[in-house]
Amino acid sequence: MQHSYSNHLINEKSPYLLSHAHNPVEWYPWCPEAFRKAKEQNKPVFLSIGYSTCHWCHVMERESFENEETAQLLNRYFVSIKVDREERPDIDSVYMAVCQAVNRSGGWPLTVFMTPEQQPFFVATYLPRESRGQQPGLLQVLGEIAQLWEQDPDKLRKSGAAVCAYISGKSTEDASGAFEPEKEEHQRAWPDKVLFREAAVAFLRSFDQEYGGFGQAPKFPAPHNLLFLLHYSCLEKDKTLEYIAAQTLFSMMRGGIFDHVGGGFSRYSTDRQWLVPHFEKMLYDNALLAMAYLKCWDQTKAFWSRWAAERIFMYVFRELTGEEGGFFCGQDADSEGVEGRYYVFSPEEVCRVLGQDRGEAFCRRYDITEAGNFEKMNIPNLLGDEKPWIPDEETAMDCEKLYQYRRDRYPLHKDDKVLTSWSSLMAAACAKGARAAFGMQKEAGEAGVHAASVWSQCLPMAVKSLEFIRTHLVDHTGRLRVRYRDGEAAFDGHLDDYAFYALALLQMYRTVFDVSYLEEAVRVAEIMVEYFFDHKKGGFYLYASDGEQLIARPKDTWDGAMPSGNSAAAHVLCSLAGLTAQEKWIQLRDQQLSFLAEETKSYPAGYSFSLLAVSEVLYPSRELICVLSETCGESVWRSLADLPDRGMHILVKTPENAHRLEQIAPFTKNYPLAENNKYYLCENGSCQKPQESLEDILKIGKI
Questions:
Q1: pTM attached to this predicted model
Q2: What is the pLDDT of residues 322-347, one digit of tens each?
Q3: Cβ–Cβ under 8 Å, residues 544 and 587
Q4: What SS3 class is residue 129?
Q5: What is the DSSP-derived secondary structure letter of residue 450?
Q6: 3-class DSSP assignment, residue 302
Q7: C-alpha 347: how far from its chain's center?
Q8: Distant-in-sequence, close-in-space partners of 130: CB < 8 Å, separation ≥ 6
Q9: How many CB atoms lie within 10 A of CB 373?
Q10: What is the 8-class DSSP label of residue 54?
Q11: What is the DSSP letter of 10?
C-alpha cells in the first residue's frame, strides 16, 4: 500500500528502505539528523532493522507501518529509524547481540527501543500490531514506553546503560541483571584436534537418520557445517562423517527446499523432511551450497551432487546476475503478498502447460496431486523417490517450460543491490566451479563440458564479478564499499567485505594462477589487518577503526547463517602464510587461530568454518611451487585443478610473473627459471626433490 506522501527514506538506494518510503511512519535512515532530532525533542528512538527478502519484515510493515494508528504513535512519541541489515551489518550485529543477550534468541525484523544516545532498553523481533495472548503487540509496547519515558525516563536510561555496559564488556552482570564472575587471565590458547572431534560428535548426535540434516524443524542447510564434515572425514578417513554430510545434501536436493523447476535453494525448510521451505532465496546460501555440492562431488563422485551444483549456478546466472557481472542479493518469499505463491502448482496448471500425457507424468514424478502438499497447492519434490535421480532430457525440457510459465504467471520481487561480501562468496564458488569444469573436461574430453553449458560460464562469471567489485565497490583510496545499486556505491566496507573478497581473489588465483589476483588479495588483507585487527587480544572487529563508532565494537565469530568475518579472515591469513611464507602473515595467522581457539572451545560445532581454517595448522600441509618455462596457460590450470583445495598451497612462477611473485613471496627467488618445467613439493617443512613433471610429483607426494 502506497500513500501520497513520502518520508526521509525517499532518496535512499536500498530496495528495502525504499519499500518503506511511503509509509505514514516518518522514517529516517540511520543518520546524525535523526539522533539530533531525538536529543532536541527528548524522544526515544524506535529502530527497525530488516532486509528486502524477509517475509516477516513484510508482515510487520503491512500490519503496523502502513497502519495510521501505529504511525501516529510513532511520529508523536518517537524518532523512527529504518535500517537495511545487508547495507549496515555493523549496526545489525551490535543490536542483534543485545537482542540475543536479553532474549536468548534473535531474528528479523529486529525491533529496538533506545535512548537518543543509542543505548537500547527494549529489544524484540517481530511484534504483531495487537497483543496476542502472552505476546505483547506493538501498540501496547509503544504506549507503555511513551508513558514511562514521560514519567520516569531515568529508569529507561539506566536500563540502556546497563545493557551497553554488558555488551561492551564493562559489566560482569548479564543483560537480565544476573551476576557472572569475571574471567581469569590465562595464557594464549592454541587449537587442538579435540575441537574437531567434539564438533563431529555434536553433529553425529543431532543427525537426523531418517531425513538428513541436524535436529528438528526448522532445518537450515548450514553448508559450512557440511563442508567441515566432508573435509574432516577426508582428513580422518571417516566414512561415517562423509555419509551424514552427503546424505544431508542428497535429502535437501530431493526436497522442496530445492527448486526443481528453476534451480537454486530456498533459505531453510520449515519441516523436518525438507519439503516446505521458507521460500526466499539468498545469494549467500546458494554460493555456499554450490561449494558444498562441489566438495561432495569431488569426494564421492556422486553424479547427483554435480547436477545440484550445476542447477545452483544455472539459477544464479540467469536470475541473480546483472549485465555488468554483479551478483544480486536474492529473491523474495512472497509474490502478490502470498508466501510461496510463485513456486507452487496445481495438476491442472502442469497439464495445461505440458500437455496431458507429459503433465501427468511430471505430476507423478514430482508429487503434484489434487490434495496438494502445501496449502492445497503443490511444491515439486522427489521425496518419494529414495534413489538418486537426475531428469532426462525430456523432463528437463518440461522443467524449462514450467519455469518460463512460472515467470510470466506471478511477479517475484528481486533485491538487485550488489553486496561486496555476498558477491565475493559467489565469485569464490564460481572459481571452484571452473576448476570442477576443468576436471570434467579432462575426464570426458571437450565434449564433456560444451561451450553452451553452465560449467563453461563459471570462469567468465568469476572474472566478471570480481572485475565488477574492483570497478564499482573499491573507492579511489583502495578501500571497499558495502553495496552498489543504481549507480551508487555506499557505506564503508566491513570485515566481511574484506575477508570474503580476499577469499574470492585467492580462489581465483588458485584457479588460473594470475599473479594479479594474488597481489590484490595481499593488498586487501593488509587493509583488513590495518583497520580491523586487534593486535593486543587477537581477532578482527566488525567495523574499521576509522569508521563510525557505535556503542560497541564487536568481533563476530559464530558461524551462523553464513560464516563469520573472523572465520573467513582466518582462511585468508592461513592462505597467505602458506603461499608467501612471510613472517608477518604467519604471526597474524597464529594470533588469529589462537583467538579462535579460545572462542570455539565452548561449542566447536558452532564454528565449523573456523575449524576448516584451523585444520591448516593441525593437519599435514603441502606447498607446491611450479616453475614453468613459459606462460601459465589453460593446460596448466587443468592439470592442477584436481589437487586438494585445503592443506595445499600452490604457486606458479613463470618468466612473465617472476618479479611480481617475488615481491609477494620472496622465497620464490630461490626457485630458478630454466628451459624445462620444475615442480617442487614441500610437506610439513620438508621439501622433496624437484621433478620435471606434475605426474611424478603426484606419485612421490601420494596426492
A1: 0.89
A2: 999 999 999 999 888 889 999 999 99
A3: no
A4: coil
A5: -
A6: coil
A7: 36
A8: 137, 139, 140
A9: 18
A10: -
A11: T
